[in-house]
């Protein structure tokens, strides 16, 4: 277990004032869990990780010379983009796949996964964001990268990408505008999901702290290979850089969450 890393930090220039996150970038499991009772093929599906996101994050971090943090474990083990009190933190069933390694699960095992995987990942995110803030003396700009399936329950999803958010619109509005300027793209605004999720990564590290941010989802079939990843890197890198150059994206300002009041 000691050689299993629950996260990877991608090095970059902290003075750039930007951090890129990939919560569901990887599909790895420690040996002790086998395949959680699932067939090997399950780990090539979206239920295990966000297809294409690891490579896209690496390319963006390299192109922009900014640090990033990647989740090092499959979300089938525990979902880093859920709060510790979220009942979907460790899933029993995911898109029809029964995860026998997660059910039944003892309180001891539940807490072990939080302590061993979930918390170390979030500690790495917190430390990376804090290091960038310390280097610049300003709020960092945070982009969280995810991907979504081309269809859900046989219904096609028309969006090429989508921006998810709660109520802090500072990075969201320019991102939507710049992506939407390409008339060949269909861009979702809080579709196919709503970005207001209490205690998820953006809530925990950005909303609560008043840090500008946006969560961007790219459709998986568009970044399933190197050509698509290169295309989306070329598209996103200059947009991220342009947004990052705006001083308004580096001010601390806490917005009220649509999920309810912050805990004091």
Automatic annotation (TrEMBL):
Pfam families per UniProt: FGase (PF05013)
Coiled coil: none
The keyword Amino-acid biosynthesis appears for this protein: no
Keyword entries, A-Z: Hydrolase
InterPro entries the UniProt entry points to: N-FG_amidohydro, UCP029730
GO MF terms, alphabetically ordered: hydrolase activity
Keyword DNA repair in annotation: no
Protein name as catalogued: Putative N-formylglutamate amidohydrolase protein
Organism: Rhizobium freirei PRF 81
